[in-house]
Write a sequence for this structure.
């Protein structure tokens, strides 16, 4: 489950272990008699109000030293390369204000969660503890269905690239109302069953949508649904069968006039002028593609013109050859 992967992720961060958290290395900074605000660090950590450095008690480390241990790439306490900026921010908080990330408090400060390639199959209710979460990245996992009731309502970015999502019905039951980016590339979505879930009725604030490398085939049907997304500015459809249609890009550019980027390519005024009016010519949309195969050279078979010519009336046996050529796409 996602909750299990998240707890394992927190364990790897070591928010309660040196040089983070509270311990003998910084005990005096968080004693009640020296920190009346209950763990909130004073101005200019490690310095007094006059700007003079405070004396660090014997056996303790200054905040500057502890922070350096986190940031130095050669330090044994440095984060692994696959960690996100949010992870680094959490560890810095665990040095400066460890009470804010102690126990369940960490759920109140986390705004971004990145769990990539961890074999997650289920997005469970435990995610609702993250009441301030705005960005959720779950790429390269094994999620086939995702229930919207288990997603925080504060979510603005949901990235599910490289999973096994084949149905959006559960996701669209109660989708996060403020979602601005939905990433569904490299999944198993197909037309026309899933087209109906890609409308403003479910995603009124969607700005960016990635549907690349799925199995969408109905260009007309998909565009009729996407046209309701009035805030949509970025769309990725490359890798779908419908992208093979000759008028694919022009039809989309003219049908969705507010698009700024299509398939990672900027849509400029010249292109809009070039394809102006194409959206009204649906007869040009053909749900088929033509593939031309040219065979340059074949080796290992007899050359037909080299056959011996038989005389008229000859009773000699005739040898014939037949070949079967198979193309796999």
């Amino acid at each position: 489950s996602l909750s299990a992967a998240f707890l394992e992720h927190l364990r790897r961060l070591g928010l309660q272990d040196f040089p983070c958290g509270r311990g003998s290395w910084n005990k005096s900074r968080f004693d009640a008699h020296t920190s009346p605000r209950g763990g909130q660090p004073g101005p200019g950590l490690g310095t007094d109000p006059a700007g003079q450095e405070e004396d660090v008690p014997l056996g303790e480390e200054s905040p500057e030293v502890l922070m350096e241990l986190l940031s130095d790439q050669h330090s044994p306490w440095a984060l692994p390369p696959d960690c996100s900026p949010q992870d680094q921010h959490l560890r810095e908080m665990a040095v400066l204000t460890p009470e804010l990330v102690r126990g369940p408090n960490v759920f109140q400060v986390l705004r971004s969660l990145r769990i990539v390639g961890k074999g997650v199959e289920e997005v469970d209710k435990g995610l609702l503890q993250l009441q301030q979460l705005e960005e959720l990245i779950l790429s390269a996992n094994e999620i086939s269905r995702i229930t919207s009731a288990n997603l925080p309502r504060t979510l603005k970015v949901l990235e599910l690239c490289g999973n096994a999502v084949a149905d959006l019905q559960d996701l669209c039951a109660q989708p996060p109302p403020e979602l601005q980016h939905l990433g569904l590339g490299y999944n198993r979505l197909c037309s026309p069953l899933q087209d109906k879930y890609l409308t403003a009725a479910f995603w009124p604030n969607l700005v960016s949508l990635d549907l690349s490398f799925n199995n969408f085939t109905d260009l007309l049907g998909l565009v009729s649904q996407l046209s309701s997304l009035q805030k949509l500015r970025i769309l990725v459809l490359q890798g779908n069968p419908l992208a093979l249609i000759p008028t694919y890009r022009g039809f989309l550019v003219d049908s969705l006039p507010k698009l700024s980027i299509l398939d990672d390519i900027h849509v400029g005024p010249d292109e809009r002028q070039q394809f102006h009016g194409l959206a009204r010519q649906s007869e040009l949309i053909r749900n088929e593609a033509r593939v031309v195969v040219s065979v340059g050279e074949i080796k290992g078979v007899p050359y037909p013109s080299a056959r011996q010519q038989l005389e008229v009336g000859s009773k000699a046996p005739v040898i014939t050859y037949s070949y079967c050529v198979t193309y796999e796409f």
Q: What stands out?
A: The helical segments are 2-13, 63-71, 85-96, 106-109, 219-226, 248-255, 269-274. The radius of gyration is 30 Å. The domain at 111-282 is CATH 3.80.10.10 (Leucine-rich repeat, LRR (right-handed beta-alpha superhelix)).
